[in-house]
UniProtKB/TrEMBL annotation:
Region Disordered: start-end pairs: 1-27
GO MF: calcium ion binding
Keyword Isomerase: no
Keywords attached to this entry: Calcium, Repeat
Domain (EF-hand) ranges: 33-68, 105-140
Listed name of the protein: EF-hand domain-containing protein
InterPro entries named in the record: EF-hand-dom_pair, EF_Hand_1_Ca_BS, EF_hand_dom, Myosin_RLC
Length: 198
């Protein structure tokens, strides 16, 4: 019995897997559009296209932006580079600039989250307890990060049992944070004297 060979079936090439977002970009919850904007900005600074922004890339970027080559001092470049995570690859670049692109949650969501520290329903939370929890629980903040996060928080003295304790009026704080977001959403409208606050 003669056997007939089955015709060979060409396998279609498998599509290349898409690059998964880095852990850091996922932590920041940056949407695709903002991630692409950051990628374009990174590529502008990465002159030699090696995937890392180094001192030479930074120097060339400053020159490309119009800085006089004689005004670029080695010490300044060193200082700028030392302020960034090393190596300054795309993930580090996202961490450096990405936080500025994150949208805040709606006011109601922020207020609900902060209300968990409001033990008596007064609209006030203990600044000391809140600071401590931010530095000790979950994604631990540094003291510097907590200070930055709370610099605009309206602080008052408590009353009753809490009379000697510094308290944050978290309802006003949420309103301030969301008001800042609304006012900065479209700066071009402000140029024309239009009220952009809601």
């Amino acid at each position: 019995m003669a056997t007939t060979a089955e015709p060979e079936v060409e396998e279609e090439p498998k599509p290349k897997p898409k690059r998964k977002p880095s852990k850091r970009s996922l932590e920041l919850e940056i949407d695709d559009e903002k991630l692409n904007q950051l990628k374009e900005a990174f590529q502008i600074f990465d002159f030699d296209h090696d995937g890392v922004i180094d001192k030479n890339d930074l120097r060339k970027s400053l020159i490309a932006m119009g800085q006089d080559i004689h005004d670029i001092h080695e010490e300044e470049l060193e200082k700028m580079m030392s302020e960034a995570c090393q190596p300054l690859d795309f993930d580090a670049f996202i961490m450096l600039l990405g936080y500025r692109t994150i949208e805040l949650d709606p006011e109601e969501v922020l207020r609900d989250a902060l209300s968990r520290w409001d033990y008596d329903g007064s609209g006030l939370i203990s600044e000391e307890k809140f600071r401590s929890d931010l530095m000790c629980l979950g994604d631990k903040f540094s003291e510097k990060e907590v200070n930055m996060a709370l610099e605009d928080a309206p602080v008052t003295k408590g009353f009753g049992f809490y009379k000697d304790i510094r308290m944050i009026d978290y309802v006003k704080f949420c309103h301030i944070l969301c008001g800042l977001r609304k006012k900065t959403r479209d700066p071009s409208l402000e140029e024309y004297g239009l009220d952009v606050s809601v």
